User: Which sequence fits this backbone?
């Protein structure tokens, strides 16, 4: 197990805190990462598939996370 | 790269216009998005914009470069973050092209892509003292 640190923003920073630290096995799939987020206090407020950014790019559905990347979980985008 | 596209200062349409105008570009189309005084039936007094600044700057640059490369236009783009009042400009896009069809297309494309891809959020403040995080998909914020 290893500690994976994630950045959060806006509403997710309010409900999860920022940053979030997860104790997980690495590498980890996006779906397993999402499940770990949803087990956090208030994690049940997250959607089934929240937006996740890896190194400042939106993650692909089959992307795996090694642990050295910059990971962020993003609320629904609302620019403009 | 930081603060090239995002800024906490009031936006200047004239500055962006001057950045893209040229004798070869006979058509300039601008979009200015401002803070509305209402949203979904509620009276709005202001918006607080926040961003994942590093990623937002990167995405804005990618949108501008892709649009310029694909359509042969010049694009200027600024998005404001921080606390805005009703009527303040939140985003300005200026597209300059040799002819108007492409200028309109480019301006529309850029604002649509900004809304779709750039990690920016708005906290909407209501006249009754409440506030919500805006979800354009219509989800119900906690």
Assistant:
């Amino acid at each position: 197990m290893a500690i994976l640190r994630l950045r959060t923003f806006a509403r997710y920073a309010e409900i999860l805190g920022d940053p979030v630290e997860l104790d997980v096995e690495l590498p980890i799939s996006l779906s397993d990462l999402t499940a770990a987020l949803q087990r956090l206090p208030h994690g049940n407020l997250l959607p089934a598939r929240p937006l996740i950014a890896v190194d400042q790019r939106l993650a692909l559905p089959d992307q795996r996370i090694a642990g050295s990347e910059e990971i962020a979980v993003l609320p629904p985008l609302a620019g403009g | 790269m930081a603060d090239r596209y995002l800024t906490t200062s009031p936006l200047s349409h004239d500055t962006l216009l001057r950045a893209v105008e040229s004798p070869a570009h006979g058509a300039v189309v601008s979009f200015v998005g401002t803070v509305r005084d209402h949203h979904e039936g509620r009276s709005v007094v202001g918006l607080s914009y926040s961003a994942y600044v590093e990623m937002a700057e990167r995405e804005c640059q990618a949108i501008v470069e892709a649009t310029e490369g694909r359509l042969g236009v010049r694009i200027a783009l600024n998005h404001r973050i921080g606390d805005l009042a009703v009527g303040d400009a939140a985003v300005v896009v200026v597209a300059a092209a040799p002819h108007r069809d492409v200028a309109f297309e480019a301006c529309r494309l850029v604002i649509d892509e900004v809304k779709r891809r750039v990690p920016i959020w708005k906290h909407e403040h209501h006249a009754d003292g409440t506030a919500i995080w805006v979800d354009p998909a219509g989800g119900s914020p906690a």
Remarks:
- Chain A has a mean pLDDT of 96.
- Residues 30-38 of chain A form the longest helix (9 residues).
